[in-house]
Design brief:
Elements (H helix, E strand, L loop, with lengths): L2 H17 L2 H11 L5 H22 L11 H33 L13 H11 L5 H33 L5 E5 L6 H4 L3 E4 H4 L16 E4 L18
Antiparallel strand pairs: 1-2, 1-3
Helix pairs in contact: 1-3, 1-4, 2-3, 3-4, 3-6, 4-5, 4-6, 5-6
């Protein structure tokens, strides 16, 4: 099996699937019209996750050995495809954050978080080794989709952190996309970022198959503004 060729096939088909997605097109249209918010970033992240997992579902069975997925094959296919797909989430979420900053008259560039490689490695460990592929694929799909939503969470956290350090007063809002569990329901609400900024705070956490939104709009609640022309704070 030529793994480089397989990876190229996966990424080509993923790109075709995403470019043909109505959901993706709608988000891109809102970005082009300067109308997008973090809710759209999460929509895009979920669509990236679904598009990639659909293609992985199609091709991973081709490389199983006795019903199992070897770790070296997963590292050559799942890991790089997730990293490359994450670039779509990164570039578009950065564009959304920059637009939100500009709408709030904040002359600060978007902060781009690093890809969480440890989480990718954890997903790979969960599907490889002695695990039978069919017994873990559904859990793996959920984990991959949550990974991309978690990358948007990191955007919210890192940009709010940077804005707070720059003298703003960011607020974070956690909302549900539908009926959620009691744990998530207890976390819904609006928070001063300074009170939930610590690493691992539950406001920024999500369990498997959790699609809650962690929203940040720098135009809401920030007391200080930077003139985009003079760079002076008021």
């Amino acid at each position: 099996m030529d793994l480089d060729k397989l990876l190229n096939t996966i990424m080509t088909q993923y790109g075709d699937k995403l470019s043909g997605s109505r959901v993706f097109a709608e988000v891109m249209s809102k970005i082009e019209r300067n109308k997008a918010t973090y809710a759209d970033a999460y929509t895009l992240a979920r669509e990236v996750g679904r598009s990639l997992t659909d293609i992985l579902r199609e091709h991973l069975p081709e490389v199983l050995v006795d019903g199992k997925l070897p770790k070296d094959i997963a590292n050559a296919t799942i890991k790089p495809s997730m990293i490359q797909a994450c670039s779509d989430v990164t570039s578009n979420t950065a564009a959304i954050q920059l637009q939100l900053n500009e709408r709030a008259n904040i002359g600060i560039a978007a902060i781009e978080p690093e890809v969480n490689l440890d989480q990718i490695d954890g997903i790979i460990s969960g599907i490889t080794g002695d695990h039978d592929y069919l017994s873990v694929i559904e859990t793996t799909v959920d984990g991959i989709e949550n990974f991309f939503e978690g990358h948007v969470d990191d955007f919210v956290h890192d940009n709010a952190e940077f804005h707070m350090n720059a003298g703003l007063s960011p607020k974070i809002e956690r909302t549900a996309t539908g009926k959620c569990c009691s744990w998530c329901e207890a976390l819904l609400g609006t928070y001063e970022y300074s009170k939930v900024r610590n690493t691992g705070n539950d406001v920024f956490r999500r369990h498997k198959n959790c699609h809650c939104l962690v929203l940040y709009n720098p135009g809401n609640g920030s007391k200080n503004r930077q003139n985009v022309h003079t760079r002076e704070w008021t």
